[in-house]
């Protein structure tokens, strides 16, 4: 089985300072890449995952490694962390990790339509409990709102042009799949878009994923709730992958939590060697906080 490569794993382990029998919350379990290493060091982990399929994969992987004894799986949204820890032994913990975004498996292989690279229904919901799909959004909201969402969540320069094309086309036929949307965006943007470095649909897809899954709202609510769970000297590590997320983490660290100390002033970034081996790590930024 091919698994997601954990990003900044060495840095995570070094800064979490895992101790035997210590308690840790992995807010974004994914393929359990980070969790497995915490378990191997003797830590106990509560693994939160919003996506049922991902949780099942992680549980199977942890069992295969014989490490299930100290692992507690939990299906849920990390925004509800204050409630999710109820009736568990993780109401006070030594460390918390967020590794935001999506796993390679989710981007490449699942049928939820997160990526423009594989054909799938334009859904993007990590959990079926979320009501609104990406198709609902592109086929219903006004041209102005669509342009605003694309611009605000992805800094897309051609947001107006893309929104106009979507609205014109959906009047003829609803946009239902990832490829339909990606092709439409490609046909409406200049052939030398970003000098060919990224596909013209990259930014619009990012914006839709953020909106459908309320990524920013989840993080804003979760960080202060999580901070309440840290034991003295407990650490919280947040790895983010785009500037909107990093801004939320930075602001959180700035003033909202006087009892938290910044362990590093500037976010850590992956070593060149890691980026060469795992290009998806290139935009990672790690911020680290410690409970006073
Ligand atoms: C980048 S992956 C984590 C990869 C993991 N650290 C590893 O090394 O295998 C992020 C995971 O967080 C999950 N996720 C995203 N938003 C979430 C949320 N609000 N609550 C819980 N899990 C979430 C995604 O479904 C995905 O599986």
Automatic annotation (TrEMBL):
The residues the record assigns to binding S-adenosyl-L-methionine are: 32-34, 49, 78, 99, 106
Has UniProt tagged this entry with the keyword S-adenosyl-L-methionine? yes
Which branch of life, at top level? Bacteria
Q: Which GO terms describe its molecular function?
A: rRNA (cytosine-N4-)-methyltransferase activity
Name the major location.
Answer: cytoplasm
From the UniProt record, list the reaction(s) this protein catalyses.
cytidine(1402) in 16S rRNA + S-adenosyl-L-methionine = N(4)-methylcytidine(1402) in 16S rRNA + S-adenosyl-L-homocysteine + H(+)
A single GO BP term for this record reads:
rRNA base methylation
Name the SUPFAM superfamilies for this protein.
Answer: Putative methyltransferase TM0872, insert domain, S-adenosyl-L-methionine-dependent methyltransferases
- E.C. number, please? 2.1.1.199
InterPro entries per the record? RsmH, SAM-dep_MeTrfase_MraW_recog, SAM-dependent_MTases_sf
- State the protein's purpose: Specifically methylates the N4 position of cytidine in position 1402 (C1402) of 16S rRNA.
Q: PANTHER family recorded for this chain?
A: 12S RRNA N4-METHYLCYTIDINE METHYLTRANSFERASE (PTHR11265:SF0), S-ADENOSYL-METHYLTRANSFERASE MRAW (PTHR11265)
Q: Family per UniProt?
A: Belongs to the methyltransferase superfamily. RsmH family.
| UniProt-recorded name of the protein | Ribosomal RNA small subunit methyltransferase H
Please name the source species: candidate division WWE3 bacterium RIFOXYC1_FULL_39_7
């Amino acid at each position: 089985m091919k698994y997601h490569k954990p990003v900044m794993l060495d840095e995570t382990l070094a800064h979490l300072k895992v101790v035997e029998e210590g308690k840790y919350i992995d807010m974004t379990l994914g393929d359990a890449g980070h969790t497995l290493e915490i378990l191997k060091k003797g830590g106990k982990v509560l693994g939160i995952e919003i996506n049922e399929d991902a949780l099942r994969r992680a549980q199977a992987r942890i069992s295969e490694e014989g490490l299930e004894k100290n692992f507690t799986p939990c299906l849920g949204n990390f925004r509800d962390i204050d409630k999710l820890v109820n009736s568990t032994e993780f109401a006070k913990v030594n460390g918390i990790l967020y590794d935001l975004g999506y796993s390679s498996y989710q981007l490449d292989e699942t049928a939820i339509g997160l990526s423009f690279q594989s054909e799938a229904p334009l859904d993007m919901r990590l959990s079926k409990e979320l009501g609104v799909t990406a198709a609902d959004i592109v086929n219903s909201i006004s041209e102005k709102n669509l342009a605003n969402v694309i611009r605000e969540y992805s800094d897309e320069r051609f947001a107006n042009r893309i929104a106009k094309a979507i609205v014109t086309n959906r009047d003829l036929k609803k946009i239902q799949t990832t490829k339909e949307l990606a092709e439409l965006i490609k046909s409406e943007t200049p052939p030398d878009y970003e000098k060919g470095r990224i596909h013209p649909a990259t930014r619009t897809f990012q914006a839709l994923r953020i909106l459908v899954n309320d990524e920013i709202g989840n993080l804003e609510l979760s960080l202060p709730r999580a901070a309440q769970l840290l034991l003295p000297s407990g650490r919280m590590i947040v790895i983010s992958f785009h500037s909107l997320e990093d801004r939320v983490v930075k602001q959180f660290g700035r003033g909202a939590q006087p009892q938290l100390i910044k362990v590093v002033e500037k976010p850590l970034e992956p070593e060149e060697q890691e980026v060469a081996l795992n290009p998806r790590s290139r935009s990672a930024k790690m911020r680290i906080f410690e409970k006073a």
